[in-house]
Amino acid sequence: MSLHSDYFLTLSSDGHVLVINQLSKKSSRIIFEKKQTCIKRAVFHPTQPALIVCCHDRVFIYDLQQQCFVTKLMVGTGSLTRVAMHPTGEHLLVGSKESKLAWFDLASSSSPQRIISSHTSSIQGVCFHPTLPLFASASIDGTVHIFHGMVKGDVMSDPLIVPLKILRGNNEIQFGCFSEIMFHPFEPWIFICGNDNNIVMFGDD
Description:
The protein is mainly beta. Helix content is 0%, strand content 51%. The chain has a 4-stranded antiparallel β-sheet with strand order 1-2-3-4, with no helix packed on it. The chain has a 4-stranded antiparallel β-sheet with strand order 5-6-7-8, with no helix packed on it. Strand 5 (39-44) and strand 6 (50-55) form a beta hairpin.
């Protein structure tokens, strides 16, 4: 589920049906329904009336006003698993089963600007920090990787990406399978839901 102001998204468990819901009007509308396509994740664009829709083999941008797909991103990293949108709306992260993480600059190209290969197994979670230059990826290899990701004003320049820390599971905390990772909106803290049905918070100390 993705929440944005008065709207939120719901996705069927088989990934075939995507619904947009409006809280104030208590209404719902199917915007995508296709048995041949499996949607892995859909998120709202933070600055435009659009959705980022991650399918198993491609990523689309869906215009909510025109009610159609307007852009297709060529990822090329294998079967896709997760997607996250930068708070500026200009950059995108896409994870894959082949342990690759693709960084897109949407203003410059429909192909990845960077490919990050730090994990050894399928990536099952990606997220940007809402206010700090941080992003994270989580994998079934049992690790969560934290990066510094500085976006430059010059569209011709690559983002500054620096690995900061690797969080690993142990006998008490298992990261092999989880449902979500998420940063705190202001602090440099990350929340991880492990396969032991607990939510663990890691801080900056």
